[in-house]
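Give me structure tokens for this 86-residue protein.
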Amino acid sequence: MIQLAWLWIRHQPRSILTLWFHQRVQLNGGRVRKVLIVALARKLLIAFWKYVTAGLCWKEPRQRPPENKRFPFSIFRGLISSGGSR
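Here you go.
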């Protein structure tokens, strides 16, 4: 999961999760990158688990979050139902 999180940051640079990661690294001066990558891996795992068990899909917000403000982040923001239930 940690390797997947590093790949997510590399290949999904405009994702809300990647923006969240970079914002948190900037706030802490880059000292806690390894801790934050584990947090990102956990958020990805939760999103994938929700997709598999409940059929909920991740939907990126249309607007980028403000760069200069801290914002509360919830992994379930932007989830939509795919119409099928399991």
